[in-house]
Amino acid sequence: MEHSGQKLDKYYIKKVDADKKSIYCHHDLMGELFIPPHRHQKAQLLYAEGDVVFVTTETKTYFLPARHFIWIPSGVEHSIEPKSESVTMRNLYFPVEKEEDDFYKIEGIYPVNNLLLQMMLFTNRWNGDLKKGTPNFTIAKAIKAILPQICTNNLPLELPQPKDKRLGKILRHIENNLGETILFADVAHEFGFSERSLYRLFQKDLKMSFIQYYTIRRILKAIELLLERKLSVKEVAEEVGYNSVPTFSNTFFKILGQRPSDYLNGEEILERGK
Known about the structure:
Number of helices: 9
Shape: globular
Strand order of the largest sheet: 1-3-8-5-6-12
Largest sheet: 6 strands, antiparallel
Strand content: 15-25%
Number of strands: 12
CATH architecture of the largest domain: Sandwich
Radius of gyration: 20 Å
Distance between the termini: 31 Å
Helix content: 25-40%
Structural class: alpha+beta
Number of domains: 2
């Protein structure tokens, strides 16, 4: 395993590539708020419980909510930053095989269906190297094998970082006013842009439109609030600027493939399965 910047001496992660043929497994509370940039030869399936995890690669920052996993291909440099120390990470690291499916070559965040959830919960008793020829290795390899078949919806739970300082100011404005209805025309006027020029700036710098960025950011904030379990779905909708619960629910469904209430029910399943 290679790493840059800070040392990773106190992390289990340096053991990942010690046995190049094993599948490495590690489940534990984070206990830390930042794992610095590093890479390993094995591909990583990272599944988080308890709170949100931010995974940053060289090009994007991914937002990993509970009951979802991120696939990180072999050799991709990344840092990991949980929102709190109470996050439990379930990790499986897989050696690269010849002629693998293209699925394994692309970063992505995917929802965990009930089948995969039960298989991940089953791995809770494991830690360390799973040796080839053992039952646990066979089960872990089966988890990897089914991913391309059941994970067909790579979710857009990522936000690019702006390079243009003018756009940075606009994104901070959005961040500080998520509870309000923000109109594109008003933003353009307030920051001295024509609507056409601001549209072009979003597309050039972020490769997405204003409404795409705004919608994703609202839903990401909604996920954080739902995980805190302090507000009702209606109150969460209002906190991220939706006056209509059905509209909020429909938007949430379009991005995550499930309703806010279903998402919370999934979290309750996790709690019972521990």
